[in-house]
Write a structure and sequence with these properties.
The chain is mostly helical and 256 residues long. It has two domains: 117 residues; 108 residues, Orthogonal Bundle (Arc Repressor Mutant, subunit A). The longest helix is centred in the middle third of the chain and has 24 residues.
Length: 256
């Protein structure tokens, strides 16, 4: 059987049996949670995924052997997570070396359940390291907590007063402390965090400006476009045309 014949047979089989592959957007969004250091969001996502484990398979079958199939999926996931984190500022050498350590650990696993546990360990480890990266310059406990709160609620409308109230601290004091340690105001940090996620979505997903605006808690689509243009020098659609499905790594390789 040729590759084309095998491809057509599998596609027909999947359609006939209503087998759903893991949704592309959901997969990319999970990588985004990891790269953003959103540990709470990631844990909730993994809990939802665990509850759905008995639903029809949403992944491709890479091997007829269940253990090998889990290992292949885990290795692919590790490679993609390591690259997503690099795109968001994680040290290249550390990311690749960490992925090598985990891939060897996957290779030594003896059951599918062990591989799945390692896969979650990988996701959590990278996510925690990305969270640490976002706060490594921070000294004050209040600023660490403020950054954590913003990261965990970046999809919501957030104000300085809301953050201060959550931490039970004076808003003026928190603002001065945050500016001193982070080099930008709380409002600027909130804006930058939202635009960073918007850029990620425009590069990898097909969501419209309205959907992204709603997802990130902007007051309106026009306000989102205005903020995005001011921050990047481009409208969201202009940014998408230039960067869609292009990664930081591929851009660097092209330059080299």
């Amino acid at each position: 059987m040729t590759i084309d014949e095998e491809l057509e047979r599998l596609l027909l089989t999947e359609r006939d049996n209503d087998i759903m592959r893991f949704a592309y957007n959901a997969e990319i969004n999970r990588y985004g949670l990891i790269a953003a250091g959103d540990l709470e969001g990631l844990k909730k996502d993994l809990e939802r995924s665990d509850k759905d484990k008995n639903s029809p398979s949403r992944r491709g079958v890479l091997s007829s052997d269940s253990l090998s199939n889990e290992k292949y999926h885990a290795i692919i996931m590790t490679a993609l997570v390591s690259r997503f984190c690099i795109e968001h500022g994680f040290d290249i050498a550390v990311s690749y070396t960490l992925s090598d350590i985990f891939i060897r650990k996957i290779d030594r696993a003896s059951t599918p359940e062990e591989v799945r546990a390692i896969a979650n360990e990988i996701r959590i480890e990278y996510c925690m390291r990305m969270r640490e990266l976002s706060t490594k310059q921070v000294v004050s406990r209040y600023v660490v907590l403020a950054v954590d709160y913003i990261r965990a609620h970046v999809q919501e409308p957030i104000t300085v007063e809301q953050v201060a109230n959550e931490l039970s601290v004076n808003a003026s004091y928190l603002s001065k402390l945050f500016k001193k340690e982070m080099g930008k105001s709380i409002s600027e940090y909130i804006r930058d965090s939202k635009i960073e996620i918007a850029e990620h979505m425009l590069r990898h997903l097909d969501d419209t400006s309205l959907q992204i605006s709603n997802y990130l808690g902007f007051s309106s689509q026009s306000h989102f476009i205005q903020v995005f243009r001011k921050q990047t020098g481009m409208t969201p659609e202009e940014y998408r045309k230039k960067h869609y499905h292009k990664s930081w790594i591929s851009e660097q390789e092209a330059k080299g």
